[in-house]
Amino acid sequence: AKIQYYLKKRVDTVHIDLLDSNGMLINSFLGYAPEYVPDPNFPRLMQGGSTLPTTAKGLNTFTWDLRYPGAAFFEKMIIWSARPQRGPLAPLGNYQVKIRVGKKQEIENFEIKIDPNLEEITSLDIQLQFDLSMQIRNATSSANQAVIQIRSIRNQLNKLMNNQELRNLNASVHEIIKKTQEIEETLYQVKNQSNQDPLNFPIKLNNRLASLRRSVENGQARPTDAAYVVFDELKKELNPLLNQLETLLSEDLSRLNDAFKARGFKPIEIQKGP
Asked: For residue 265, what are the CA distances in angstroms to 156, 159, 249, 261?
């Protein structure tokens, strides 16, 4: 979707919001430059897609790739045969674009219509595809966010344990690190260091979820019955791991934090969702 807007003069920032038919925010984009230039340092697998708003005097064009935000991701994450950072394609229907410059804003409506080249595909088919894709995206985000939490906690624990005053807590710390590492290694293939490593090491749960979404989004069509079955199976693997991590944080880590505070040290912070 190409969205054009005219500025009487160059401005500092342009803010664009994409909203669904109910006025719910889909995504926000903020631009600071008069010309859009893709970041050459951006990971290759995340390049493309939407542009950023530009701030030049005259006619400006912003391009939305019609996709919702992708799944949460972490630094140096390597996923085989999928792009979880790329969100599901928006379904058919009415949308709004809100453009803000300073205190002034304008809202316009637009519609996403079905590709006339699609044969025997209905709007319901595309809606069902979107609904399942969003569910898989959310599950992938939960898996990745758990990895982010685990790594943050481990880094904080390792730094704290450099202090000699906490040596008597070593056993408790190592037990938490061990338990969280077991969860992490089930969620993500930690041996992946390059894009070729998935050829040598089996993909783990977050990669299997991301690959399932890629399969569901292969073309525009109603999801197969098998896709729903596979997703249910993956959820049955994911949910116990997330529950296990939640218990570990609310009980084991909470007790350890009490011990840190009793000795005058800052407790471990638990990173919340994105």
From this structure: 12, 12, 18, 5
